[in-house]
């Protein structure tokens, strides 16, 4: 038997396209060939189970080997095998009827992966690393003859009688000079463990040594000996293929540490198992995270029928859940032939929505069933929840019942609980509820104490997302304002009735304002005199809540209009409390020098409380304070 011919692809440009566009990473060739071998193995097993194949199955496994001297890599299976006619049907006649138009349209494109998935070219990925590919195969069909196919990367092929004596297929790659890096044991094993670690058929790559019991010595102690066994690189039955009822907590933890060996135990996990209207399995873990946002995208792995596809899952997993770890497996996610680029369609959108709902349901159940445990985990999961509420409207609607607020007294509230707590005291004269918060209890302590003295509560909002979360609360909560506790005097933040009468006359107030304007020589400081409680500080320096919030967002990289606010010079309000005894003392001082000296000291104290007194000015303040003692 001998036959020569031309591969039916209607164009001579197919191989340059494969090499240029088909795969972003050349190592994918091994995944494609091993996956094909696994498919062939599963098919013979299926035929046997329904009685359409009567022969002995033997040991069903896929073997990968290499010969450095002869520069070959071989992928072998004991699957269906092929006849010469089937080779011509499945290998030679590539389903590429539109190839000519494709080549013309995309010959200069960089994104040909968008379309190339329509043409079934997985086997031809071999030509990315090989200048000659050989197939040795023997079909499972009774009386079939072995066949050999060889192609040198052009459209010319040759079929002759093969030399395989057992059912199955060998794919032999004669590696080209540019790809000899793959003729390395560690390199190949690394690729196999990355892409084939959970394939449903054992994949053997060479041998490894292991210890086995070998009787007992003269003292009755167990002896061991070293034996050589097949090096099986994959777990054929990972936990996401099992029912949750079959698994213990330890099973989930063991699998997590198999995926992420250096990580702490996860907080909890979600087992996905959907078969309608799409097929989806997997396990998602909530890891312990730091306060800072660390959107590291390579933590969730996407599989299709246990074949690793990609760890770029941003289209499938909602953005706010990119912090999760774990695996997702779905044959319904459309992929191009390289299996490396997701194509958005209705299935992807439905899966995205389903994952969002499952996560929300899990968090809601944890909150209802074990609130204390949920609160203990909040420092880790709060980042997920707030990010989800900010980026996903549907998640906000679900999460508003289990998002938590912490105050400076280490108390924890839901949104509805907090509204009930503060509404009686913290409702201003216009009817708006005012939520006060601090970003730094240490630096803003005097303002917190001032609020607490009035019976007001202060929230702790010090995560990177809280600036945006605060704005969202104002948009979502009816008649609610959120103000940083140091963004004004306490009376200006929660305006009640008419202000207290001033103990100073209008003339004295004008004098005090002039004195402080002379003492305050820093740009962007706007002095005004207010009649506050005598227990409040004599001078308070604050930045307007709106401006400060815009600047904080700009500092976080808000972009757009935020950059405009970030570029504006800082402006502060200097509030002089006309009812404080020190201000009365300044107003009645006999000399201008004495007035300005006391005003300067009071102003510097206000700057110091806000961390705004630094450098030479701080040194001068300390010297002046010592001189006054």
TrEMBL record:
Family: Belongs to the heat shock protein 90 family.
PANTHER family: HEAT SHOCK PROTEIN 90 FAMILY MEMBER
Protein's UniProt name: Molecular chaperone HtpG
PROSITE patterns xref list: HSP90
Record keywords, A-Z: ATP-binding, Chaperone, Nucleotide-binding
InterPro entries, per the entry: HATPase_C_sf, Heat_shock_protein_90_CS, HSP90_C, Hsp90_fam, Hsp90_N, Ribosomal_Su5_D2-typ_SF
One Pfam family, short name: HSP90
Domain of life: Bacteria
């Amino acid at each position: 038997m001998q036959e020569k011919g031309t591969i039916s692809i209607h164009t001579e440009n197919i191989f340059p396209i494969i090499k240029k566009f088909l795969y972003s990473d050349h190592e994918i060739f091994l995944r494609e060939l091993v996956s094909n071998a696994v498919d062939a193995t599963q098919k013979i097993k299926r035929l046997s189970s329904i009685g359409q194949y009567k022969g002995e199955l033997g040991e069903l496994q896929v073997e990968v080997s290499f010969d450095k001297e002869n520069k070959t890599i071989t992928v072998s299976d004991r699957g269906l095998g092929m006849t010469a006619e089937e080779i011509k049907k499945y290998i030679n006649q590539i389903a590429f009827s539109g190839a000519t138009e494709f080549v013309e349209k995309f010959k200069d494109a960089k994104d040909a992966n968008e379309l190339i998935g329509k043409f079934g070219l997985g086997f031809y990925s071999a030509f990315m690393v090989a200048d000659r590919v050989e197939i040795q195969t023997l079909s499972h069909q009774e009386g079939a003859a072995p066949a050999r196919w060889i192609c040198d990367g052009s459209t010319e092929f040759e079929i002759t009688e093969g030399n395989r004596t057992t059912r199955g297929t060998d794919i032999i790659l004669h590696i080209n000079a540019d790809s000899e890096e793959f003729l390395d044991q560690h390199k190949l094993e690394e690729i196999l463990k990355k892409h084939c670690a959970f394939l449903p058929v054992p994949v053997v790559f060479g041998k490894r040594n292991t210890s086995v019991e070998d009787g007992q010595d003269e003292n009755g102690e167990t002896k061991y000996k070293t034996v050589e066994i097949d090096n099986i690189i994959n777990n054929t039955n990972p936990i996401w293929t099992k029912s949750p009822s079959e698994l213990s907590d330890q099973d989930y933890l063991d699998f997590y540490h198999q995926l992420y060996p250096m990580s702490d135990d996860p907080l909890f996990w979600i087992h996905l198992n959907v078969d309608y209207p799409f097929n989806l399995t997997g396990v998602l873990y909530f890891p312990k995270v730091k306060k800072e946002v660390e959107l590291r995208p390579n933590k969730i792995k996407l599989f299709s029928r246990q074949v690793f596809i990609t760890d770029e899952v941003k289209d499938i997993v909602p953005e706010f859940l990119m912090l999760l770890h774990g695996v997702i497996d779905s044959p319904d996610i459309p992929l191009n032939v390289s299996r490396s680029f997701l194509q958005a369609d209705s299935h992807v959108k439905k899966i995205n929505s389903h994952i969002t709902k499952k996560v929300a349901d899990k968090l809601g159940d944890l909150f209802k069933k074990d609130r204390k445990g949920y609160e203990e985990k909040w420092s880790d999961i709060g980042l997920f929840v707030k990010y989800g509420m900010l980026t996903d409207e549907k998640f906000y609607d679900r999460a508003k019942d289990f998002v938590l607020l912490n105050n400076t007294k280490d108390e924890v509230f839901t949104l509805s609980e907090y509204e009930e707590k503060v509404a009686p005291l913290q409702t201003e004269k216009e009817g708006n509820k005012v939520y006060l918060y601090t970003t730094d209890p240490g630096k803003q302590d005097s303002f917190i104490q001032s609020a607490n003295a009035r019976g007001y509560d202060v929230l702790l909002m010090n995560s990177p997302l809280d600036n945006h979360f605060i704005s969202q609360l104002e948009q979502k909560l009816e008649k609610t304002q959120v103000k940083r506790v140091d963004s004004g005097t306490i009376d200006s933040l929660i305006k009640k009735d008419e202000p207290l009468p001033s103990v100073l006359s209008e003339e004295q107030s004008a004098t005090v304002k002039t004195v402080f304007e002379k003492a305050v020589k820093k740009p962007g400081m706007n002095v005004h005199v207010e009649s506050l409680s005598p227990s409040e500080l004599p001078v308070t320096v604050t930045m307007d809540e709106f401006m400060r919030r815009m600047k904080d967002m700009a500092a976080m990289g808000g972009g757009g209009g935020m950059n405009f606010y970030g570029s504006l010079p800082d402006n502060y309000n200097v509030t002089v409390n006309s009812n404080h005894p020190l201000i009365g003392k300044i107003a009645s001082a006999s000399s201008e020098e004495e007035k300005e000296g006391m005003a300067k000291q009071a102003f510097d104290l206000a700057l110091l409380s806000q961390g705004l007194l630094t450098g030479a000015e701080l040194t001068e303040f300390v010297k002046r304070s010592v001189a006054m003692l």
